[in-house]
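Technical annex B. To support the medicinal chemistry partners, we prepared a structural model of the target in complex with adenosine-5'-diphosphate, based solely on the information shown next.
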Amino acid sequence: MLLKIEKLTKHFEGLVANNNVEFGLARGEILAIIGPNGAGKSTLFNLISGMLRPTSGKVYLEGADITGLKSHTIAEKGIARTFQTTTLFDELRVVDNLAIGHKVRTKSGFWDTLFHTSRYQREREETQAKVMDVLEFIGLKHNAFDFVSTLPQEAQKRLSIGVALVSEPKIILLDEPTAGIIQDETDAITDLIFKIKAKGITVCLIEHKMRMVMDLVDRIVVLNYGSKIAEGTPEEISNNPKVIEAYLGG
Ligand code: ADP
Ligand code: MG
C-alpha cells in the first residue's frame, strides 16, 4: 500500500469526527471517500495532510510513519491536496498561483533570491518549465495571464488541482473537486482526474456526485458519523444495505 491509515481517530471537544478509520490506498488507483455531510471526510484529509493532528491512530506513506508531521513536510514527501472551497489567490494571475504551488519543490532561501545565485536561477527555470507543463495539462494554457477572479468556477477548480500538481505529488487528495459546479461541467473534471491517474499519480477524492463516482473510481470507502461503514467496488457499494440506510435513513 502506498498510503495506509490505521485506527485514525479525531475528537473535537465532545465530538468524534473520525473513529478508528482504517483503509489503504494502492499505488495508481482512484479511491473515493463518500458519506453524508458531517461524516468526517474533510477531517480525514486534514489528518492525512498534516493540517490537524489525530487524537490517536497512524498514517503511513510507503511504510514510513508520517503521523503528526507538519503539513509542509507531508507536502514535500509527496501528498498534495485541494480544499472544499478554493484557496486560490484571486487577485493574482493563473501563472502566479501555479508558481506559488511549486514553492514546495524549491530550496532557495532569502540569500539565494537576493543574490540570484545559480541555485535560484536553476530553480526559477524549473518552476517556469513545470508551470508551462501543468498549464497545458489542466487545459488553461490560453488563460495563463488571466486574473483568477475572471475565470469561471469550473476553470478555477481545474486551477486548484493544477496548484496541487505542480508540486509533483505521488498522491493527490481532492476535496469535492466538483462542488459548486453544475452537472454538465463535471466532465472536464472527470477527464482531468483520469489523466492524473494515467500519469501515475494516485488519487483519493471526496465526492458527492454519485454518477461521477461510479464512472470514475476503482474503490469506495464510506464514512458515516466518523466511522467507516463500508468499503468496496462501486458496484458492491451501490448494493450495500448499510450504505443505502446511511443515505436514505437516519
Ligand atoms: P464532512 O467533510 O464529511 O462533511 P467534516 O470532516 O468537515 O465533515 O466534519 C465532521 C464533523 O467534525 C462535523 O460535525 C464538523 O462540524 C466537525 N468539525 C470539523 N472540523 C472541526 C473543527 N476544526 N473544530 C470543531 N469541529 C469540527
Ligand atoms: Mg467536507
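Notes passed to the chemistry partners:
The mean pLDDT is 93.
The longest strand covers residues 15-25.
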